[in-house]
Amino acid sequence: MKKISILTILMVAMGLTLVKAQNLKLDKKLQEKLKPLISQFHGTAGIYVEHLPSGKYAAINADTIFPTASIVKIPILVGVFQKIADGELEYHQPMVYHDSIQYGGSGLMQFFKDSTVTDLSTLLALMISYSDNTTSLWNQALAGSGETINPILSSYGFEFTRVNSRTEGREENWRQYGWGQTTPKEMATLLKMIRKGEIVNRAASERMYRLMTNIYYDDYALSQIPPYIQTASKQGMVNASRSELVMVNAPHGDYVFYIATKNNEDKSWKPDNESWVLARKVSALLWEYFEPKYEWRPAQGIGDFQEGLSY
Q1: Are 72 and 163 in contact (CB under 8 A)?
Q2: What is the pLDDT of residues 245-273, one digit of tens each?
Q3: What is the C-alpha to C-alpha distance for residues 33 and 49, in angstroms, rounded to an integer?
Q4: 81-92: buried (b, 16+ CB within 10 Å) or exposed (e) per residue?
Q5: What domains can you pick out in the chain, each with its CATH number?
Q6: What's the pLDDT score for residue 301?
Q7: 3-state SS string over 80-95?
Q8: Residue 38: pLDDT above 50?
Q9: Separation CA 285–CA 256 (nearest Å)
Q10: Which end of the chain is more exposed for a tag (fewer CB within 10 A), N or C?
């Protein structure tokens, strides 16, 4: 096991970060509103929602393990900031990109010229804002890969949230879930702990949260929240699994939710993909539930691609 900071160990020992030690109350009304949306999905869907001021929550398949896809980049982010806190990395540390580490899919750094000078803060921003795969794998290596990141997650009480890819001993998990795995409750709880300044330390948590408020992929759950309201989020998308993690800094109190899907029958990449429609419907329902007096509805007609985005 790689080094974990003394601060992290002390936080766990003091009982400040245990996932299961929470005083929460089921919101039966919200639960009933969400059930039809989840049950009608053609595949497996799960959700965890928590209203932070009241401690009320709703949960459907919230302890079921789902693939993270790119949402694994949040645990990677935690791993890098732990290294920064331990003095092994610096936030603005200079880096040099070499195209030998180029990786396809989402992101921008794969198009950089070989030997481009950059820095760690840019790698982290690209990983979160644009879900950049090249910088994500680079950051994972800098963090010490899953062999270092997973013990950190475990130290905070997370039982199922893990990095699988390029991690010794997790080959079977990688075959089943891909890059990473989590449950709706655990990933929502991780973001809640970041919001409360409980991951790594307060300064690191606040910087991680700032990074998560600058997201390019706002056509899904974020499209149903007023653009004037701050959100922190991360999206994960592969053919048969689309998931989204969102914290909403709403006028009447923060709420966090994680909507996860797997075994999706609809594997298309069109705006009306069933999992993306589900994410929008869930997000719209939650916004109207927690902020019923806020007069706003998503605008229509921003080009043909926008058709069907608002529900």
Answers
A1: yes
A2: 999 999 999 999 999 999 999 999 999 99
A3: 12
A4: bbbbbbeebeee
A5: 6-291 (3.40.710.10)
A6: 56
A7: HHHHHHCCCCCCCCEE
A8: yes
A9: 13
A10: N
Residue 133 has pLDDT above 90, yes or no: yes
Asked if residues 156 and 19 have their Cβ atoms less than 8 Å apart, the reply is yes
Q: Whose structure tokens read 């020992």?
A: 13
- Using alpha carbons only, give the angle 63, 69, 71 rounded to the nearest 5 degrees: 75
Position 2 scores a pLDDT of 44
By DSSP bridging, strand 231-238 and strand 162-163 are: unpaired
> Rounded to a whole number, what is the distance in angstroms from the first to the last CA of the chain?
47
Question: Which value, to the nearest 10 degrees, does the dihedral of the CA atoms of residues 91, 180, 48, 35 take?
Answer: 150
The pTM of this model reads: 0.90
Which residues contact residue 114 at a Cβ distance below 8 angstroms, ignoring those fewer than 6 apart? 97, 98, 99
| Segment of 18-22, 112-116, 250-254 carrying the highest mean pLDDT | 250-254
Q: What pLDDT is stored for residue 186 in this prediction?
A: 98
**Plot region of 177 (φ>0 → left; ψ -120 to 50 → alpha; else → beta):** alpha
Tokens for 150? 């997973």
What is the helix (H) or strand (E) element at residue 39, kind and residue range?
A: helix 28-39
* C-beta of residue 239 within 8 angstroms of C-beta of residue 42: no
- The helix or strand, by DSSP H or E, that contains position 58, with its residue range, turns out to be strand 56-60
pLDDT, averaged across the chain: 91
In whole angstroms, give the CA distance from residue 80 to residue 74.
Answer: 10
